[in-house]
Structures
1.
Amino acid sequence: MTSFPQFPRQGEVYLSKALRQSGDTKKRPVVVVSIDLRNQYSSTVLVVPFSSDIASASSNPCRPLVRKGEGGLEADSIAMCDLITTIAKRYLEPSPYGIISQDSLSKIQTAIKIAVGLF
């Protein structure tokens, strides 16, 4: 039986080291949004960071809400799709917290499209 190496999968939530390019100074949960085929062969992944400051997202179409518990999130959080970024896999904690629902992933993908003008 052949075993395949593990790699981050689309929709999985990880704790990431500080995303300095977006001004972060602390670890933050992120969701992997790049497709699995890319994730398998690349040393990097595309991620969207989360924030529990949901008040800052009121009516921002680029920041959909993801409920507490989904993907292992400890609080209701917003996916900051306007801050999509590429990070090296080594900056992710070794194991995912969990995986978000297909519905939440679809909302995040739509918000990314809005953020980059593909709507």
Note: The radius of gyration is 14 Å.
2.
Amino acid sequence: MGRPRPIRLAALPAILLLALPQAGRAADEPPRQRTFALTYRATVRDIPEDSEALDLWLPVPQDDANQTIHRLTIDAPAPVTLGREPGSGNRSLHVRLDRPQGEVTVTMTIVATRRENAGRREPLSPGELRRYLAPEPLDGPIRRLAEEATPGPGGG
């Protein structure tokens, strides 16, 4: 049996990274959490004077394994509709203004508790994987912008 071989310094970071998840907390210890208030404000500016209507959609936070929404307050210049996207289940807010004038601002104030994920795996079903990894169709002005920003191999 020869002399013990020294550990190469290049391997040390990998060894330390492997040890980190176990060093942080015991498996039965509850995840850390923090409660906070957040203000989310969206302002639409430079609305053409002859606009007949303005439709604004904003994402709305929702409860899940990593967060609890305790309070959601919405301040908008017109009635608000809350909806849920059929494919993802994500919630959204919609406000429509007829003949908008000047700037339009919608403000959401949220009180939420976020919980540490701590490396917990959340497996996806085969259907979810297909949906989340599928390309999204682009059309209209978004497609034109994407084509301008990412010219093909021929340079445009």
Note: The chain is about 20% helix and 35% strand.
3.
Amino acid sequence: MKTTTTTIAMAMYFFFIANLVSICFLPDMFPDSQLFVVLEFADGGCDLERFELHSLSQAKAILHQICVTLAVAEAALQFEHRDLHWGNVLVKRMDSREPSSTHHLNGEEVCVATSGLDVSIIDFTLSRMQKDGQPLYCDLSADPTLFDGKGDYQFDIYRAMKKENRDNWKRHCPYTNVLWLHYLADKLLNKKYKANKKSQRAWQQKFQTFLKQVLDCRTVAQVLKDCTLFKDK
């Protein structure tokens, strides 16, 4: 039996999705002559959708880390992720159990309680940034099917982004990051936790307040400044 790059790619693909639900294309859609690029990354952990959390206080630590990361990227690069669903957020438990992480935003140090969790943002396919005065972006207007999805709040965010920037994906609209924060907070609020529901009530109220406050902010920096969720211990 002849081994081709497509055969190898298929084997790797099925190994990867053995315990996952994937919407990715099967590698066998390509001819045997197809070449593939394999990229190796550090283990960022488990995606947020499948990561088991004990409580909403841990969820707050995750959301806070995401907010600070986005705020720093906004300030430095006019960054917008534009596809920050919870499959693109990775979480892992830190061996060191560091109680907080330190970030630099607009010349100030920002300390964020981690709850022993390390958070990474991935998949910048649809993202936008500006480097040396040049905007780098994916023109989402070329794929109108992206805005036709139904069945999950994620698809509403795509349409809300399009409404916000009037389908002009070149210009910087930091509010798109705010929209994704609302999405993530909604997912975290409704996620199942190991802690009993009674002990969660105070944090549920804090998240519900955040959902009411966050969409009034125009940037993630304003979210950090104005939303009470990140002022509570």
Note: The chain has two domains: 1-40, 46-230.
